[in-house]
């Protein structure tokens, strides 16, 4: 029993220590400027790597999610004679929940894992150590532009996911099922509130972007510089990011709805 308590205590201390290191790492990485800092060109390059290269999977996934939402929603609403509200259901579901959450999960799997592997490989090949020897802070040169690029790219990708998903729902509802075009778009326009639905959804995606990118760059920077260590850190990035997104989604939703 005593050994069990000791192991639990050691694990708790290690977890708190790791969280503290990650917090200090995040605070230092947020500040841009100083000797050897990356320029604006590097930031644009990372926006392309993290955002533009994730567009294809986000757009395709958003379109199919919207189509599935329309099919499932129609099968439910038609039983109540409310199929005209299908556009409202699709839009609110995407803007409030599925858009930010699914985009964050896709972003973690595609961009987050790539970030961890890239930074971990730089550590394994002593590129980060070489920067320190030349008086260049690797946090400012490598981590900061990637962190800010992920924070900026995530809300844009989530907005595109929702927009494409709404058009996917319209394709199924209007073109395949035959719901009146005016009813689909008109009811959606009347129901969607800019602040309560659009802005709060973007706030969620911004928070998810911060957390997912933070986890990704920290796992890469803290990775054991071996093939096995980098693989483990990449896996941890996807797992921890997914759990963090789902947990934060509940907290943010409860706070926005006044449940907390």
Comma- or semicolon-separated keywords:
260 residues; mainly alpha; 0% strand
Q: In words, what does this structure look like?
A:
- Helices cover 84% and strands 0% of the residues.
- It has helices spanning 2-30, 40-50, 55-77, 86-124, 127-133, 138-177, 181-191, 194-221, 227-256.
- Helix 1 packs across helix 6, helix 2 runs parallel beside helix 6 (138-177) and helix 4 packs across helix 7 (181-191).
- It has 260 residues and is an all-alpha fold.
- The chain has one domain (52-256).
Q: Determine the structural class based on helices, strands and strand pairing.
A: mainly alpha
The count of DSSP E runs of length 2 or more, i.e. the number of strands, is 0
- Proportion of beta-strand residues: under 5%
Instruction: Specify the overall morphology.
Output: elongated
Q: Evaluate the radius of gyration.
A: 22 Å
Poorly predicted segments: none
Head-to-tail CA distance between termini = 37 Å
> How would you state the average pLDDT, rounded?
88
- Order of secondary-structure elements: HHHHHHHHH
Integer tally of domains: 1
- Helix amount, in percent? over 70%
**Biggest sheet descriptor:** none
Number of helices: 9
């Amino acid at each position: 029993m005593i050994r069990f308590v000791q192991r639990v205590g050691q694990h708790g201390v290690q977890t708190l220590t790791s969280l503290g290191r990650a917090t200090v790492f995040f605070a230092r990485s947020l500040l841009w400027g100083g000797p050897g800092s990356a320029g604006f060109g590097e930031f644009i390059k990372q926006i392309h790597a993290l955002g533009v290269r994730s567009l294809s999977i986000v757009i395709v996934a958003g379109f199919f999610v919207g189509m599935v939402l329309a099919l499932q929603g129609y099968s439910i609403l038609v039983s109540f004679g409310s199929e005209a509200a299908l556009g409202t259901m699709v839009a609110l579901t995407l803007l409030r929940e599925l858009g930010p959450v699914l985009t964050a999960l896709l972003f973690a799997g595609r961009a987050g894992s790539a970030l961890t592997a890239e930074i971990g490989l730089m550590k394994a090949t002593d590129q980060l150590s070489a920067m320190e020897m030349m008086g260049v802070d690797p946090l400012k040169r490598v981590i900061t532009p990637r962190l800010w690029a992920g924070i900026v790219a995530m809300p844009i990708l989530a907005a595109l996911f929702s927009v494409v998903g709404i058009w996917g729902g319209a394709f199924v509802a209007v073109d395949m099922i035959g719901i009146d075009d005016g009813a689909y778009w008109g009811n959606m326009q009347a129901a969607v509130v800019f602040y309560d639905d659009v802005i709060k959804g973007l706030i969620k995606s911004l928070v998810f972007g911060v957390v997912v990118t933070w986890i990704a760059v920290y796992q890469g920077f803290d990775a054991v510089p071996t093939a096995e260590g980098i693989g483990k850190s990449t896996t941890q990035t996807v797992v921890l990011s997914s759990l963090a997104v789902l947990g934060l989604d509940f907290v943010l939703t409860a706070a926005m709805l006044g449940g907390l």
